[in-house]
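tmp note - ABC transporter ATP-binding protein
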Amino acid sequence: MSFLKVHEIHHTYFTKASATTALSNISFTVEEGEFISLLGPSGCGKTTLLSIISSLLKPTEGSILLENKPVSTSKNEIGYMLQQDYLFPWKTIEENILLGLKLSKRLNSKTKTYALNLLKQMGLNGGVEKQLPKQLSGGMRQRVALVRTLATEPKLLMLDEPFSALDYQTKLKLEDLVSQTLKEFHKTAILVTHDIGEAIAMSDRVFLMSTRPGTIHKIFEIPDVLRNLSPFEVRNHEAYPAVFQAIWKELESLEQQNE
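out:
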């Protein structure tokens, strides 16, 4: 039994004047502990698909099962990390990371200790928990956002371009940190990205989506020799350029079809 099963998803956006099909006939499975990336041209429906998988959006047709149960019944088991950190500026870092636990009525001394320990594991110690978000750099705030997501111990993580607003050096450091953390906790994750290098560096498989209506055009299996390395090491490995070129070539052909 697959951990996550996406079955024949179709989605159409309706307005009074028109109907636009965003996704068509999307089916795939994800195993527990696997890291998947969704890659594709702008407007191919990557974020729409992520929203459907996380049950924020109901598909026009199709079903999503998480551990063989409808995903709509598993909201507390899905964590979301976005491009913006969305920390409440008037709350301390501690208050921010405990927010999910508080809302799901799971905040107690044990879960609070777990969340604060996570903060330290991310290198955020020395009284950071008492500071406000404005006192931290962009990279530090994204670490806090990751801690807030992991604090509720979700089974599935949805990552919607979480590093795209960061400078390149911070982005590389955070890729390594997130990858290491998810492997350590054996988390299953789905990443939406426009960055081919990021998809290769972090994933077990890369799902290349076609232009609208979005479908799964091709699935790239990342070689084992790369999957066992950190994202930074992947980018410097001799096997990396060939995988990059293969994905780039397919993406170019898709974008040309759209012109």
